[in-house]
């Protein structure tokens, strides 16, 4: 019974839950010949599975005898799935995930130099390579990146009588009120568990706040962060956001924006491909820098996902893993993934392939530009996983029933416990 | 000489591997420092327990678990008594109604919970649509975002999925009451109310006890309904101990603390079961 529940637990859809349980009990699929590897990929959208299936087919026909067993997992289940696999020693050979540092700390993953060729290693853009290091050694393989900018609906802005996107927080508030009067949701504010940490960081860093202080110590309860939440709380209480930000997930507001019901929000580069185009290709929207408290500087949040290669008992998987990773990082293959999913490239060669395709260049340019001095979540700190979890659960309550200073204090405690 | 081993061996082995070993493992984990990737980092003493009891959310979670269990089981039993009585009386189409009652049982709990989540959705939910069309509401209500409403809604779903089993246990109980007892009562001049209170309920007591205990354990351990509908949120405002211990492990990354919570959970269940055994034994003594 318990086991059954635990299986059900991970999956929110029955199908996923069932396949999950099946996989879990089929024990080690690594194979002893060292030519079969298991790859767990995150599901970015409906095209993800098709991309990997096709890529693996190409790989297997180019490398007879090698096999890749693919499992695609929805982001919503990813954390619990990965945790279960790692704790029960059923790690895949290759994992596509957004964290790597606690695996590196506990010596579970290969160094980057051991699983890709030097050519690939030098192909990673320095910004991302640096963020893939733990204590000076690169363990994570940069996979995709994303940048966040401010999206606004031009038609709604016109109806509400706003002539340009807001640059300061005061302007955001004023615009949100006007949009509400025009009969739309002023600001989309997703502080539900899916990506609350990103939404919070976007607002906090544009108020001079953030996760750590200047010396790199956790400073989640700093005054700038309290002020940030107080501001967001006020917007919520004035009802210019969608109802109940604390339970609204990012994909909910992205969908609402695509349907033309939300005036403005912190968007992401993949929003066009993943949300707007499938619903309404003619949606009249603009992209602007993220608003900041005083409007003088505008910081961007960068997000990077990784591939990591887990060590297996005798190291027999290393050759096959390396073959597959080198295959994926060939510029056409990597570029195709990035353009299929609407992300930004993390390698020079794939970036060049993409920028030669001028159709999309105009849309992607501001994101690429913003990325060069973007701030990232501290994924290279092993305590981040716990902080991330605590923020996702708690931060939203600060704009609902909770008190911002107290909520941040609780998260700070979690962070220090992990040190 | 070996015969008893032959008879008792398989069952003992089963209990040892399936029950005793996991319990030992759980207690051991709760006394261990476990890193976020699941590596053991040595003996932790009672640190996991002190951390757990220092969590500001724990009292609320425990209280909510009590409300959840008592509320769901009580409502389920009351409704099931009515349903069982209905199904026990003769009326045309009874067979169909009995079949229909099995449906919530046969369908997956997770699916039922998911369907309710969508029906209660703020933006697209059919419940808001219906109430607004009827003029009951002016604006949509975000049912699952308000802790009180969310808990009530989830308890509703929990009752819904518990009804079939409970009704059938009670129906079986009703059918085992001999008709002569009622006839005798009628001859003695007892009305329907007197008959129900004086004969049906006392004779139904064994079935009621079984239904109550099994429901308490099921509802206490219920995970999918809460997880699918609110994930215990906002914050921890609709968590019970079962979802809370999951979050401790998977969101807070503190496996040891989660194991400590599991031990506490186990203790609570054990207490309930002991009370039950006592209760049953006393009943056996009186009859």
UniProtKB/TrEMBL annotation, chain A:
<protein>
    <submittedName>
        <fullName>Extracellular solute-binding protein</fullName>
    </submittedName>
</protein>
<keyword id="KW-0732">Signal</keyword>
<dbReference type="InterPro" id="IPR050490">
    <property type="entry name" value="Bact_solute-bd_prot1"/>
</dbReference>
<dbReference type="Pfam" id="PF01547">
    <property type="entry name" value="SBP_bac_1"/>
</dbReference>
<feature type="signal peptide">
    <location>
        <begin position="1"/>
        <end position="17"/>
    </location>
</feature>
<dbReference type="InterPro" id="IPR006059">
    <property type="entry name" value="SBP"/>
</dbReference>
